[in-house]
Amino acid sequence: MSALAFLFTSPKLKDRMTSQRKMMLLILCALSLILIKYYFRNDQVEEPQLSAWFNSANRSDVITTTNWHAPIIWEGTYNREVLEKYYKRLNITIGLAVIAPAGIIRQYLKEFIQSANKHFMTGYNVIFYILTDNLNKVPHLELGLLRTMKLFFIPANTALEDYSLWYMKHLETNIIDFIQYEVEFLFKMDINQIFKDDFGVETLGRSVAQLHGWWYFKNTEDLPYEKRSLAAAAIPSGQGDFYYHSTIFGGTPQEILALLVEYEKGFTHDTSKDINSNFESHLNKYFFVHKPAKLLSPEYNWESNLKTPPQIKHVKIEWQSVSIENDYMD
User: Which residues of 170-209 are buried (b: 16+ CB within 10 A; e: fewer)?
Assistant: First the structure.
């Protein structure tokens, strides 16, 4: 028997190799248990109960809870620190999409992004999505830590489609192709707004609707819902919950997609009936049927030309109430 053959058949050597294999298996098992424990501790963080961070009793001067038990976020009703502990452990990324037609980029985009850079989801990973028909007009913008910007080109509306439908179709396409894989939550906002105070994680939810500041303080019977019964966006007389402002809406990318798909269906239906309901009417119909999980008070979007009532404690975003429809179509 050769020396080499002896080495591989030696009982002592076999025992030693068996012991080493057993030791390696034990080490691998121990490492696996550590990894499993780490995964479950960090990936399955329990979401805090509503009562842990939201107290509707703190604001008796306003409506703070809907009849389907969704919170309406006002200053003083929420404890952001509780939510911070939860979302920080999840290491989430939030998207903010804005449509910036060439005709109004210079007028609004720089101030919108600079103010959002300062106040929107500070301390979290944020991606600003700029959808524009002229990439060359987008100014250079300095962003803070954890903030990035992505540009999406939208072709000129040569087909002369309804401008809202045109841009929403392209937003939908970019959510499907890119955005849904990059963020856990997404807000779509109009460009003619300026952040004035912190817009934080208290606004996050599966679906988020913005109460219209002007109509919140008006008689509910006068809300400007679509009234034409044949329209897809019609809300029956005497029904409806609140009037929502289309300048801000948010939620998970999947929920935003569902809203946009319904809007397209409704628009197609209305076109066949010779009806033209605006996007805001379709948005209100969607939230009438699919109740939002969270509502933002008028503090989160207040018109700059309106006198501020005592119920508005801190304006988070100032809306510049000018018509940008014609600029969209330039």
Answer: bbbebbeebbbebbbbbbbbbbbbbbbbbbbbbbbbebbb
pLDDT in the model for residue 329: 40
Task: Indicate the pairing of strand 72-73 with strand 294-296.
Answer: parallel
Tell me the residue type at 290.
Answer: H
Q: What are phi and psi of 51, to 5 degrees?
A: -65, -15
Question: What is the rounded CA–CA span in Å between residue 140 and residue 110?
Answer: 9
DSSP three-state, residue 38: helix
Catalytic-labelled residue, pool 172, 280, 299, 318:
280
What pLDDT does residue 122 have?
Answer: 97
Pick from 192, 191, 295: nearest CA to 243: 295
pTM of this structure: 0.84
E-strand stretches of the chain: 72-73, 93-99, 125-132, 147-153, 185-189, 193-195, 207-211, 244-251, 294-296, 302-303, 317-319
Question: CA 91, CA 108: separation in Å to the nearest integer?
Answer: 31
**DSSP 8-state assignment for residue 268:** H
CA distance 166 to 171: 9
In the structure encoding, which two tokens stand for residue 1, read together?
A: 């028997």
Q: What's the chain's average pLDDT?
A: 88
pLDDT at 160: 63
Summarize pLDDT for 220-251 with one digit per residue, the tens.
778 999 999 999 999 998 899 999 999 999 99
pLDDT at site 330: 42
Residue 184 to residue 289: CA distance in whole angstroms: 24
Ranges under pLDDT 70 in the chain: 1-23, 25-44, 158-160, 322-330
Q: Is 264 a catalytic residue?
A: no
Q: What is the DSSP letter of 182?
A: T
Q: What is the pLDDT of residue 326?
A: 45
Contacts of 304 (CB under 8 A, 6+ apart): 318, 319, 320, 321
Place of tokens 């939810």: 205
